[in-house]
Write a structure and sequence with these properties.
The chain is built from no helices and 7 strands. It has about 100 residues and is an all-beta fold. The protein has one domain: Immunoglobulin-like (Sandwich). The strands form 2 sheets. It has a 4-stranded antiparallel β-sheet with strand order 4-3-6-7, with no helix packed on it. Strands 1-2-5 form a 3-stranded antiparallel β-sheet, with no helix packed on it. β1 and β2 form a beta hairpin. It is elongated and about 55 Å long. The relative contact order is 0.31.
Length: about 100
């Protein structure tokens, strides 16, 4: 299992600023190892973010996204105490869901 997704959600005026750091190696499938063999592709494909169980963001990632992807966005309609959930799924079928509370 991968490391937990680090999520910070803090109120900034009438919006919540959400920062997400996903721990993932994100191999493109184009690099070669020291023996000259191609390293197989391994990357996050789908990211979903929910606020109190309601979808607020859906994204598709590909091979061009760097290792340990970082997202930052403002979220309207959030209040202190609300729950922000981040789910992702990679091309090997692994998935992870983590949650944070808006501060």
């Amino acid at each position: 299992m991968t490391e937990p997704t680090r999520i910070r959600a803090q109120m900034a005026g009438d919006k919540a600023m959400v920062r997400v750091l996903m721990a993932h190696e994100m191999e493109s499938g184009q690099r070669k190892d020291s023996a000259g063999k191609t390293i197989p592709a391994w990357h996050i494909q789908q990211v979903n973010i929910q606020l109190n169980g309601r979808p607020v963001l859906a994204a598709q990632f590909g091979t061009a996204v760097s290792k340990n992807p970082f997202l930052q966005f403002n979220l309207k309609g959030a209040k202190p105490g609300d729950k922000v959930a981040v789910s992702w799924r990679d091309n090997r079928g692994a998935s992870r869901t983590d949650e944070a509370t808006v501060a």
